[in-house]
Design goal:
The structure is a homodimer. By secondary structure, chain A is mostly helical. Chain A is built from ten helices and no strands. In chain A, α1 packs across α4. The first copy, chain A, binds a DNA duplex through α3.
Chain lengths: 172, 172
DNA sequence: TATATTCGTAAGCAATTACTCACTCTTTAG
DNA sequence: CTAAAGAGTGAGTAATTGCTTACGAATATA
């Protein structure tokens, strides 16, 4: 991965996440990255390929987090760790997650490969705990997470994260 | 409001909410509405004006719902009514709300005039109930609502609404 | 050193974009 | 009934879009 490739990815991520994929022309990405527009297509084939590369990064990061969580033996603690994912995101990774969340609302780019592995861990953990309807319960938890993640990502540091986290812990 | 104006608004809403504002050309809207492209600009001035008209509809609908809820005297019941808004949406209004939710993620079109009045009612009600930190508590409830609304709007009828609603009721 | 491959650019291209304009047809008002 | 205003259209237009291509520079490989 060359320095200019990274620069392109960073600029694209920043622009996509703040304005939306379709609202950002490749010319602007190139300008902000300080490279020629053609280079984008050399490295990423097309605009969609550029988005895919960014999304791929997100998938790898989520996979890594989940890998760690899977290793927790106590299912109760495992569920808690899952639920705390939105709170454990670092500020400099907000743009990536904002982009991923915004893509969910667009038919053509929506992709459940982010939520699927998370739900899987939840369902397994809930089954271990002999929950009656593990699948529905997992959906419920995913709903909470979605709400918290949205709030954190959109309001940034304004929101009272401790309060949210405390409420969440109390309930599980 | 002429018949063709309505047709334009309906087509635009459907397309915007499924593909995203920037991904939909006015030519496609006109085609789907069965009118000439020029008519869009006659009635709505520009593409942004078309979006504004749609968003305005959403604001009026939310204002109406809130007006009704404000009239509930018991603050506890008022809060419950607010929280149940996402569950009371009719299927044929999903596109409108999907669009509004998707716009939240785009810097240029984001607009807190949907959440503000809801939070206002919540804060007032929580204060009536002598909550310690009504503002933070309201944010918490808004987070729940966001999560539920996202789940319902994105998964459609697939999701187990009763389970979600039951969980919500139990907690408040 | 020679050569093949990758990195990078500038210019340009066809298609699409939002929007305008000149015009006709329909509706309304006095 | 007449005239003004609004509804509606089709053919444009300038600008922008994603993307290609021809080429030079750098780098790796032999």
């Amino acid at each position: 991965m060359t320095e200019k490739q990274i620069s392109i990815l960073e600029s694209a991520l920043e622009l996509f996440s703040s304005k939306g994929f379709d609202a950002v022309p490749t010319s602007l990405i190139a300008k902000q990255a300080g490279v020629s527009e053609g280079l984008i297509f050399r490295h990423f084939k097309n605009k969609q390929g550029l988005l895919n590369a960014i999304v791929q990064m997100g998938k790898e990061k989520i996979a890594f987090k989940i890998q760690l969580i899977t290793e927790i033996v106590d299912p109760q603690k495992r569920i808690q760790a899952i639920m705390e994912i939105p709170f454990s995101l670092e500020t400099d990774q907000y743009p990536l997650w904002r982009l991923i969340y915004s893509l969910k609302w667009q038919q053509e780019y929506s992709d459940d490969e982010f939520s699927r592995p998370i739900k899987e861990v939840l369902v397994n953990s809930l089954n271990e705990l002999k929950y009656f309807d593990a699948d529905a319960e997992a959906d419920l938890i995913m709903s909470y997470m979605d709400g918290f993640a949205s709030t954190i990502l959109l309001k940034g540091e304004v929101v009272n994260k401790d309060k949210l986290l405390h409420a969440l812990r109390k309930k599980y």
